[in-house]
Amino acid sequence: MRQLMASLALLASAVLAVAGETLPRVSLLVASPGAEIYELEGHAGLRIVDSDGSDYTVNWGLFDFNSPGFVYRFVKGETDYSAGVCRTDYFIGGYAFHGRGVKEIPLNLTSQQVEAVKALVWENLKPENRVYRYNYVKDNCSTRPLKIVERAIGDSILLSVPAEFADRQVSFRDVMRRYHREYPWYQFGIDLALGSGIDHPLTSREFAFAPVLLPEMLAGAVTAGGAVVAAGDAVDVAVAADSVSPGPTPWYMTPLAAGVLLLVIAVIVTVRDIRGRRVSRWFDCVLFSLYGLMGCVLTFLVFVSVHEATSPNWLLAWLNPFCFIGAWAVWLKSCRKMVLCYHFVNFAVLISLALVWPWLGQVGNVAFIPLVAADAMRSASYVYINRCTAKKPA
Fold it and tell me: Which residue positions in the chain have pLDDT lower than 50?
């Protein structure tokens, strides 16, 4: 049936072309993943071909790295993106130039629905409307055009679940890991910064946050009223190069390798400290300063940032500003009891966190294991060494 509809649409286009007119139509353009971290799930735009032959694509993924305070506002959650429009050949050519493919998904819309899409798009492109608060998983370049189409047809679109994920429950984090597998440090940062809000099982609609999944999801999509959404199969309007990614990260440069190396160093230092009944303050200063800095970032993301997915984040029990007590107070004799108390509490919290983690609803990164182990080991050794030293006869 879909193939028949597509054939009829092509036939109508040919007839109108002979008559000197172009059949107005709307389609989704989906670019394949790129090499930059913000390109790993691809990109999407809404293509509109008008009856006068004009052909343009609307893009909801525009941002300016050079705008004042961009990084701070982005971390805080004030991620203001904007909509823009350009000629479709420019849109496609820009991705083709960088070796990225582009698929086109024609949409099964009536001429009245196409006009409604155009009206909504141009209203959105007005200066007072074009800027919006971007949300990585709920409101982005992929979800925006879908909502425009739904408003135009007055019905919701029921998307199919991608076959790759159809046999199990997956979360936003699972999908991210699928496309971030060659960028382990980026995924490590996401696993640190984003809490349990991205770990719930996805609905079929929530998969649409990843543009690269749209061609497959729209292939079997219908509206709530039963109408077929796509007017035909997705076609390649630009062919992807063999690879635009840098390739897999060598194992020895991954977060897990760095964590294991840190744990090995911590073991060596701790064994030497226990044998000598002393504490290597220089090592603790470096280790707990690192954890304290990460704790400050997490504290900011949880309590200041307006990003939805940053809170709750149970890693705050491990990484928090209190880590600086173990880093700097250790140099002050007057703070010895405070440092001892910190390490006792820290060790107890880390053990408790490890025991209850499976029930917290948050998925961690495997590299966290050696990092937490090094933390717990240093706290335990500090308590042990100070207790042993306190029991020495005068």
Answer: 1-20, 394
